[in-house]
Design brief:
The chain has three domains: about 100 residues, no CATH class; about 35 residues, no CATH class; about 35 residues. The protein contains seven helices and two strands; from the N terminus they run H-H-H-H-H-H-E-E-H. The chain is extended.
């Protein structure tokens, strides 16, 4: 079975790799951890593998992002009973400033504990994949007449669940606004055309 792919390579990564911008790459990787602090997806591992593979391809050798551990200014530790989001965010700041392998295990443990009952972007991505697979399985099993399930959107940080309307349904509910905006755009375009003499 093929493993799910969560990481999407892009020009930002490629340019940073090509120019050996380790700080940019570290910031991008720390951003992935921030959006998926429970590591429910494999995006972080995929990004690391991509950076290694692409740097070998572009530069002839892998970029080494890790550093020797160096305690950061005002760095502190908390016992597990006192872990919270602020502490997790500080761990990410210290990791970006000093990308030492020794920091990673603690970041992972704190993230999994602090965010275990909270919605995150990583959990939303995973949930949307699961729902898409379930829907695909229903459609391929001959249940095409079943009503299409709305995609669940989980907003990171506020623990809310909202249902995303299918595009056609959204237009049905908001057609007056769409028509008003389209008419306004057409009117402004006509005025610009008149003023420019075209």
């Amino acid at each position: 079975m093929m493993q799910e792919k969560y990481f999407n390579e892009n020009d930002t990564y490629d340019n940073a790799i090509r120019n050996n911008e380790k700080g940019v790459l570290r910031a991008l990787l720390v951003g992935i951890i921030g959006s998926d602090p429970t590591f429910v997806t494999t995006e972080y591992e995929e990004a690391n593998a991509y950076i290694k593979r692409k740097s070998e391809q572009l530069n002839g050798k892998a970029i080494e992002l890790t550093e020797t551990y160096s305690k950061q200014e005002d760095e502190y530790t908390k016992n597990q009973d006192n872990w919270d989001e602020d502490y997790f965010h500080m761990l990410l700041v210290w990791y970006e400033d000093n990308y030492a392998t020794e920091r990673f295990a603690n970041i992972k443990a704190v993230g999994k504990e602090v965010y275990k009952d909270k919605l995150t972007l990583g959990k939303a991505k995973k949930q949307n994949r699961v729902l898409a697979k379930q829907q695909e399985a229903e459609n391929t099993s001959g249940n095409r007449a079943a009503e299409k399930k709305a995609q669940v959107v989980m907003a990171a940080g506020n623990d809310e669940r909202n249902t995303r309307l299918p595009l056609g349904e959204w237009f049905k509910q908001n057609w007056k606004w769409v028509a008003l905006i389209a008419g306004s755009i057409a009117a402004v375009s006509a005025i610009i055309a008149l003023l420019s003499g075209k």
